[in-house]
UniProtKB/TrEMBL annotation:
The keyword Transcription does not apply. Keywords: NADP, Oxidoreductase. It holds the Pfam family adh_short_C2. It comes from Aspergillus carbonarius (strain ITEM 5010). Residues 35-218 form the Ketoreductase domain. This is Ketoreductase domain-containing protein.
């Protein structure tokens, strides 16, 4: 619906909103002292690199993991190394009751949640004609349902608090039909969470920010096949995969007060893969 000339000349009640009360020094903006950050899929790969980044910036962290109990030891190491509170929680993000309970446990243990990073995900790289319905459901239950459950229940916390920050890990595969691997279910699941995150940014505009990170090929345990990696070298403008240390700063920026004017954005970090 278009605005009339009269409407456009009228200042809406409550606008303009005030600027945030944040430091002017950019390094101070990037510090997370006193903040509580939850990271799902935090046992290794991008998730652990992000947990490490948050602890390095002095945040207290809740590391969620599914089956890799090494997360418990890693949380203890981050706590002792950086002098922060770090606790590991075993969570199946595809189970809504477990997600709801664990979010309540985190609030009880830490007192609040400032930032929630929905990073857990999985891929079964098969064409749809070769993939079973069980494999389809498994991917959707983690990549789609898991993000939705986390968002729903942490969103309730954010709304009660009056503040919050959700960061969703999507993929460049939500932007393109990734090659050379046929993985239509994974691609579609990531397209879902990208648009879901943008929609939440609008819905939650009164109390929380929401942004999306879309990584390309990174050297992780969830990495692609040698065939796909060789194609990544050819397709990427930088001619290589990313190292997880190269993504830490992006998540820190989005989690910090340096990005307070940023919501609903989907940030590609792919070495220029989608440029051609």
């Amino acid at each position: 619906m278009s605005m009339s000339t009269t409407d456009s000349a009228t200042v809406r009640e409550g606008f303009p909103r005030p600027f945030p009360n944040t430091p002017t020094n950019v390094l101070a903006q990037l510090r997370l002292s006193g903040k509580v950050v939850v990271i799902t899929g935090a046992a290794d790969g991008i998730g652990y690199a992000v947990a490490e980044a948050m602890a390095e910036a002095n945040a207290n962290i809740a590391m969620w993991y599914n089956s890799n109990d090494v997360a418990v030891e890693k949380a203890q190491t981050l706590a002792s190394t950086h002098g922060v509170q770090a606790t590991a929680y075993k969570v199946d993000v595809s189970d809504p009751d477990v997600v709801q309970k664990t979010i309540a446990d985190v609030v009880k243990d830490f007192g609040k949640i400032d930032v929630f990073i929905a990073n857990a995900g999985m891929a079964i790289s098969k064409p749809i004609l070769e993939q079973t319905l069980e494999e389809y459901r498994k991917q959707m239950s983690v990549n789609v349902d898991g993000v939705l459950y986390c968002a729903k229940y942490v969103g309730e916390v954010f709304q009660r608090q009056g503040f919050g920050n959700l960061i969703i890990t999507s993929s460049m595969s939500g932007h393109i039909v990734n090659v050379p691997v046929d993985q239509p279910v994974y691609n579609a699941s990531k397209a879902f969470v990208t648009h879901f995150g943008k929609s939440l940014a609008r819905e939650w505009r009164e109390f929380a920010r929401v942004n999306i990170v879309s990584p390309g090929f990174f050297e992780t345990k969830m990495g692609a096949s040698p065939q796909a990696i060789n194609e990544a070298y050819r397709m990427s403008a930088l001619g290589r995969q990313g190292h997880v240390k190269e993504i830490k700063g992006l998540y820190l920026y989005l989690a910090s007060d340096a990005s307070t004017f940023m919501t609903g954005s989907d940030v590609l970090i792919d070495g220029g893969y989608v440029l051609p």
